[in-house]
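Two proteins, back to back. First:
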Amino acid sequence: MKISLSIVFALFLCTVGYGQNVDQSVIGSTGDEFTGSSGSIEFTLGEPVSETYSTSEYQLTQGFHQGYYLFVGIEETTEFDFTTRVYPNPAVDQTTLELVGIQDFNNFEYQMYDLTGKLLRSGRFESNSIQVNLTGLSNSLYIFKIQNKNLGYAQTYQLQKIK
């Protein structure tokens, strides 16, 4: 009787011990798991963000796999007695960047970015207007930044390329 009671008690402890073992695991409709020598990570897609923890080196977002995000910001100033123009908009093959009401255009430059923040074109103003070639670019929205670092001037424009 003592032996059967001991066996039942041992089986009970094994069951309870196993039942309390919680492996960190994600169950989802899509995702992946990566394992390396320093640890492992599992993620799924389509879940809402519930909470984010970060340190100086790492960032952990629970409930959502957050990839690498690059935030592009351009500071704009508008307190100057000249204007800049980008035309035609929408454009097909080329667009014109023009400085209106300024004589010293030597320190002005432009950059053209796609919507992911990738720099596509750049140049310096040699006169008060520049023709920018748009051939070879897909029909999309592009961002132009016209700036003069010496004056602290920066202005952005959105340009729609069509056809």
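And the second protein:
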Amino acid sequence: MNISSFKSSIFKFGVFYKTVGLVLLLVAIAIVYYSFQTPTCSSIIPSSNPWIDNYSAIAGMEHYKSWGTYNVHDPACKKIGDTYYMYSTDAIFAENKKEAKEKDIPLGYIQMRKSKDLVNWEFIGWAFPEIPTEAIKWVHQQANGKGATNIWAPYLIEYNGIYRLYYCVSAFGLNTSYIGMAESNSPEGPWQSRGCVVKTGKGDVMNAIDPSVIEDPKNGKWWMHYGSYFGGLFCMELNPETGLAATPHDQGHLIARRADYKKDNLEAPEIIYHPELKKYFLFTSYDPLMTTYNIRVAYSDKPEGPFKDFYGQDIKDTTNNVPIIVAPYRFNNHPGWAGTAHCGIIDDGNGHYFMAHQGRLSPDNQMMDLHVRKIYFTESGWPVVSPQRYAGTPSRDFERDDLVGEWEIIRISEPPLVRDLIAGQILWGEGELRKNEQALSTIVKFEKEGAAGVSNWTFNKRKQSLNIKSDNEEISHLIVMAGQDWENETETILFTGLDKAGYTVWGKKVK
């Protein structure tokens, strides 16, 4: 290198050094400035959503590898090692089996996904290349050759290093149904059919769909909950060694039902055990899946029941039971969601639980998006969920002043309208929500301490809980947390809880 080049290099290095120093100084000044301008916890931080809700642009069959959070219906999820595996009914918006066959797309029934963080999901294909022959034969025999066109509502459980995938095959509108089980050494398959768990047909009061399996940690017994609007929900004992019925041809005992199946739907049991509360929680889905589909919960001291609701009533007494955990809703700046039910409960292995369920994007209610919500437990021991469909926000604590501002609050309650149903579902052509079938938000302002109206809310910093008063009622012990404002694409403050009647109350800070 000559002297001229050396001097030029020194000059450029000096300019670079001074430029970097100036940038670092400006960054430091900005950090100090904003730390004094806004409280750290109360900042509404821009945070883009990881995906859009309308997936019509990739609805074609050739885009199936991009269906990470799309076309999710009846999800069941388990954490295996450091990976979450999700299985769901093979329901596809804009499905075209002819096109799939022409393009050699492995359409095959039971969709499979996996994720490391419950946020980013990889679609990994279908569990089966075809519907098991024995299931088709049973359904066709009972339904005059009809039905058995796809597989519904899978459920996964592990036994001594073997993964068992439960599934159901049915004829729509009939209780000619079959719950089978397949096994694999890997959660990704391939799967080997092990036979029938329970089947129903002409003359049976129940319907063999929507399985959920649990082990009693006290005695090692296995129990499967299943059923629908045909007769209600049932529970039967399984043999852990085989994964099939403990007693051949057993169909179990009744655990839940509703009064009038011409207008009331009931299905999709999902049971979990909470070791700290020493309670079994049974989540169920009410009403039509495309519109007012909503999630309820009951509890028991035993996996086989009986299960009781918010008022201590047995849920097989035909009362419309509460709590209601999730129902169709709409925050501002979004078309809202319908069909918010049939849930799978996820245990992350570290004492945290999450709920996965479908949400149908309004107003058409045809697209099925995955919702994953963190579960919280109220002071009285009831599970409630985050108001937002996102599990990726780190937890943090707040001060009282962080809550000052404008909030959108939603009250979840009974659908106010009654519709006639066929086979538990709405009549053809009635797939959109009617007025008042979707819970809407209202704006409430939390004033600073000392200002007018300050007595209408109090915050417990130690418990991170909120009490709200109005002229008519007081809602206590609402759980406060950080979360994604999905509608406005920011991180904000949320709350969730139950009112005194057992209905969910949600809130999110918007200003």
